[in-house]
Write a structure and sequence with these properties.
Blueprint lengths: L4 H17 L8 H22 L1
């Protein structure tokens, strides 16, 4: 999905930062939250890279 390992690492880091700020009591599934966040950030990152 992404062009390089560095971009993938940036997406993972962004997901971690979002996870730290979310109210964990409101999250039904950590796995689903992180998977969805990573997928959406990856799509967003790849669209941004295609435009630039």
């Amino acid at each position: 999905m992404l062009g390089s390992r560095a971009e993938a690492e940036d997406v993972v880091q962004d997901c971690w930062l979002r996870w730290r700020e979310v109210d964990h009591a409101q999250v039904q599934s950590a796995r689903a939250f992180l998977s969805q966040t990573a997928t959406r950030r990856g799509w967003s990152w790849s669209r941004h890279s295609a435009i630039a």
